[in-house]
Amino acid sequence: MGVGKSEVGHRLAKELGLNFLDTDELIEKTEERTISEIFKIDGEEYFRKLETEVLKTLQDYDNYVLSTGGGIILREENVALLKSMGPVIWLWAGPETVYERVKNETHRPLLEVADPKAEIKKILDFRKPIYDRVADLKVDTAKLSPEGAVQEILQWLKSK
Length: 160
Description:
two-stranded parallel sheet, 8 helices, single chain, mainly alpha, Rossmann fold
């Protein structure tokens, strides 16, 4: 969260002449409610199940850049599905940067806690080893503009 997945994803898709898809948006359309509502009513585990279902429906599609929520890698099944779809690019920013970017947002269910800054650090500390294992490329968006991140990704893709 707060690393620029949507912005960078849209720009990257445009540069590559591909469509842009976002798993959270697809879930919200299918469920006809927000991610926050899903978390509040049905819980995180139900939401994670929905993420897996969305990934399965995308297996036969081509020509798109996919943005996912950061927790999608918490299920090994999702990791396998993502890896089968193409390179996995991890947009990263440290906890302080993430907090500064999202502190005024109200649609982040995982941050509806007493100390969101501590929660961000806890989430990133837990997920970082998984991201390190899963990602084909890591891009630190704290140090780059969205366009700079896109250029780094494009350069990496050209080298493959």
